[in-house]
Design a protein that fits this description.
Length: 271
């Protein structure tokens, strides 16, 4: 009786394992096809300057127009792409597309923000990739903000600083994305040449109801000011959220209050 139960458990476990492996293999192959067949699209989410209440920037966010599953969000594939290094090819496509999009918007936006994964940033030819696209699309590097997460603190600090400074020398800017959620270390932050710091939406979401989140948002804005970073709040969903971050000296915000990320055509209508 008990032996039989054990056996069943084992075979259930095996089939779950193989199903997971099969799903990953399928995703792997589908992602490769997606790159070749240009199934990805960059959506744009407006970034508003707090003091003027104007849309001055946009964050480019990847979407996958999957042939059978429809529109897929990054949580369905970016993590796997990062693990498997497919992010290198996807990321190169993202960079090229972001430059092309900005060319369409350069009369109306100061800059565009692009998410960069650690593996992409760590590539030897990363700087070259940026410069090639700046030239190809005739875009001023000052118009491109590169969003990195705290995961870059996993790399060698001096190498990272060096690389960032080389890239910044051309005019590109850096944002620290999702600040406060990862490996943040204040001493690292002090040394890294970031221009912007983005407050993660998890703090913004509950800051009006939760006293600790409220304190954290204020502290993050203070820290950013001390280190001369501009501050961007993510996940601003209500007028009350916007008022609170404005009163506390946050320079920019993005969130559903203004718009969710949308395709270029719809983004132009928001301007
Ligand atoms: P992120 O860079 O922190 O992007 C912000 C995420 O918050 C986006 O999710 C955006 O749609 C969502 N968001 C914006 N405003 C609000 C709001 O008011 N409320 C709520 N609840 N959510 C809001 P999305 O587009 O699903 O992207 C998720 C993450 O995927 C991004 O987080 C980024 O880490 C990654 N990602 C997106 N595009 C790319 C890309 O092109 N390359 C890389 N490497 N990663 C990307
Ligand atoms: Mg981002
Ligand atoms: Mg973020
Ligand atoms: Mg995030």
């Amino acid at each position: 009786e008990s032996k039989k139960g054990g056996k069943n458990k084992t075979s259930f476990y095996d089939s779950t394992m193989s199903r997971q492996i099969q799903e990953q293999l399928l995703l792997h192959n589908e992602l490769k096809i997606a790159i070749q067949e240009k199934q990805f699209e960059l959506y744009l989410q407006p970034i508003v300057e707090t003091k003027t209440n104007k849309i001055v920037s946009a964050e480019a966010l990847i979407r996958w127009n999957h042939p059978t599953k429809g529109l897929l969000f990054p949580d369905a594939f970016i993590e796997y792409a990062e693990q498997s290094s497919l992010i290198i090819n996807i990321g190169s496509w993202v960079i090229e597309s972001a430059f092309a999009l900005y060319k369409e918007l350069e009369d109306t936006l100061e800059n565009i923000a692009v998410n960069i994964s650690l593996k992409q940033f760590s590539q030897d030819n990363f700087e070259e990739l940026l410069l090639t696209n700046a030239k190809k699309y005739n875009v001023d590097p000052h118009s491109i903000k590169l969003e990195l997460t705290e995961s870059i603190m996993l790399n060698n600090l001096n190498d990272t600083i060096d690389k960032m400074l080389h890239i910044k020398a051309h005019g590109f800017a850096f944002s620290m994305d999702d600040f406060g959620t990862g490996y943040s270390s204040l001493s690292y932050l002090k040394n890294l040449p970031f221009d912007y710091l983005k407050i993660d939406q998890s703090f913004v979401r509950d800051m009006l109801e939760n006293e600790n989140d409220k304190k954290l948002v204020k502290i993050i804005i203070d820290v950013a000011k001390q280190f001369d970073f501009s501050v961007i709040a993510e996940g601003v969903e209500t007028v009350e959220h916007a008022h609170f971050i404005e009163e506390n000296g946050c320079d920019y915000y993005q969130g559903y209050l203004i718009s969710k990320p949308v395709p270029l055509k719809e983004f132009k209508k928001l301007l």
